[in-house]
Write a structure and sequence with these properties.
473 residues
Length: 473
């Protein structure tokens, strides 16, 4: 009997047999990578980190960025070593065992759910710039509904949104750097008497104003700033020509860190002086307010609002894709395997949105925005430390088990044997740092409960699968 030559439309293919479409182009993946390198932690959290660390915050971002570049290089080599790898959960399962895929997949999902809650909470605070009496939950819920609605349409819609969100952030930061240099070199003085000068970076007592403890405390929120830097590894499965576009996106990370973090923070401190940066406000908005430019401050507030939307948009996208990948590996309920007619993991998208909604309810329990943001960002940082460590452990195992693939790699990790271990030591030190302050220690004490739950769920995954599938033993 002859096979039919009639091609099926995507909508005619059963949901479990559909595949993610490669609709993200080079411009999408480049801006997704840039957007991931400019997180809400920079726009909102930099105020707190500057107040804690002073000028040394510049070193904090540089140090974190240095190690994360090698994490991304390891991620890139592993993803390109085998076309069947769609995300880091895939190669973790291949080289460390099925448990690793289960743990890293669900932990990454949780990290983005937590990050999304933090970003959406911050969106409510940004809206108060224009509407001081507006209840936080109204803009938070509005943002969640908007992002979920847009992500339901297609992956290309996500790529377009992220492209423009990231472009707005890039233009704003470049404008801020240019304005900062102009103010510093012209000797601009704000109505409050703050004289803009790069000497503010070198004044006595500005490098470590609170000593070593203040410098170390700055790492927690700085870590949160890099949430999403690994998003290109999740989007790779839906990217055209990943062999070319993925290395290009990863290789530009050092330039982004230098431009977006180091120069922008240096300009903020030069214009405002570290002692005048409010810990509970966005220093990007405060810079122009101190300079007596309220109209510019409103524009920057809009920019940081889009930054939070960008980060939340990335979270809504990545959580649904991670659930889809977990379901395909029998590490999540089978019902999450199905794609919609437009090849969107709709069920995973709605499940993640429901969990984010539950997180927003924290606004009713803890109305203080920065308190919520600190707790959530610390939890997210802990999850990311675990995920990034698993990526490095996967690379070490891959290097030992498949030396043939490593020798043939088109994108090998530089100084792999040394830097893979150096990154693991650095991440262990970060956990110690998180234990030093009461506000971050709380989240560190809660985190083990998640891994205990994962252990129980992994050991009983067959029984859980039967419950969700309606089967009987």
């Amino acid at each position: 009997m002859k096979k039919s030559t009639i091609a099926l439309n995507e909508s005619d293919v059963p949901g479990e047999e559909r595949h993610l479409k490669k609709n993200l182009t080079n411009r999408h993946i480049q801006l997704i990578a840039i957007g991931g390198a400019i997180g809400t932690g920079l726009f909102m959290g930099a105020g707190k980190t500057i107040s804690l660390s002073g000028v040394s915050i510049i070193f904090t971002y540089t140090i974190i960025g240095f190690f994360l570049f090698f994490v991304m290089r390891a991620l890139g080599e592993l993803l390109l070593s085998d076309p069947k790898f769609n995300s880091f959960a895939d190669f973790a399962g291949e080289y460390l065992g099925p448990w690793a895929s289960f743990f890293i997949g669900w932990s990454y999902w949780l990290s983005w759910v937590v990050a999304c809650v933090g970003d959406i909470v911050i969106i409510g605070d940004y809206m108060r710039f224009w509407y001081p009496d507006l209840p936080l939950w109204i803009p938070a819920m509005g943002a969640l509904i908007l992002l979920v609605s847009l992500n339901v349409l297609s992956v290309k819609m996500f790529g377009e949104m992220e492209f423009w969100f990231a472009l707005i952030k890039v233009v704003a930061i470049v404008a801020l750097i240019m304005a900062g240099f102009w103010m510093a070199f012209s000797g601009y003085t704000s109505p409050e008497g703050v004289k803009a000068s790069f000497h503010n970076l070198t004044e006595p007592g500005t490098l470590f104003p609170h000593g070593l403890s203040g410098f170390l405390a700055g790492f927690q929120l700085a870590f949160f700033s890099f949430v999403g830097i690994e998003l290109v590894g999740v989007a790779a499965a839906e990217t055209k020509n990943p062999e070319k576009n993925l290395p290009k996106a990863i290789n530009s990370i050092p330039v982004r860190i230098l431009l977006f973090y180091v120069l922008s923070l240096a300009c903020i401190i030069a214009v405002s002086s570290w002692g005048n940066v409010a810990a509970d406000k966005s220093p990007f908005v405060q810079l122009f307010t101190l300079a007596g430019l309220p109209a510019a401050a409103a524009v920057i507030n809009f920019v940081v609002l889009t930054s939070a939307l960008s980060s939340a948009n990335s979270g809504v996208f990545s959580t649904s894709r991670m659930l889809f990948g977990l379901a395909r590996q029998d590490a999540a309920p089978r019902i999450l395997r199905k794609l919609s007619s437009s090849s969107i993991p709709l069920r995973g998208l709605l499940l993640s949105a429901g969990c984010i909604f539950c997180g927003i309810l924290l606004l009713f329990i803890i109305p203080e925005v920065m308190t919520v943001f600190t707790i959530l960002s610390t939890m997210c940082a802990i999850m990311l430390i675990f995920i990034w460590s698993m990526i490095m452990l996967s690379w070490i195992s891959y290097r030992k088990k498949r030396p043939d693939l490593h020798s043939q790699s088109v994108y090998p990790m530089p100084m792999g044997n040394i830097m893979s271990r150096a990154c693991l030591v650095f991440f262990f030190c970060m956990l110690i740092i998180l234990s030093l302050r009461p506000d971050t220690r709380t989240a560190l004490m809660i985190a083990p409960l998640w891994f205990i739950w994962l252990t129980v769920a992994y050991k009983n995954r067959q029984a859980i699968k039967m419950v969700f599938s309606g089967s009987r033993p």
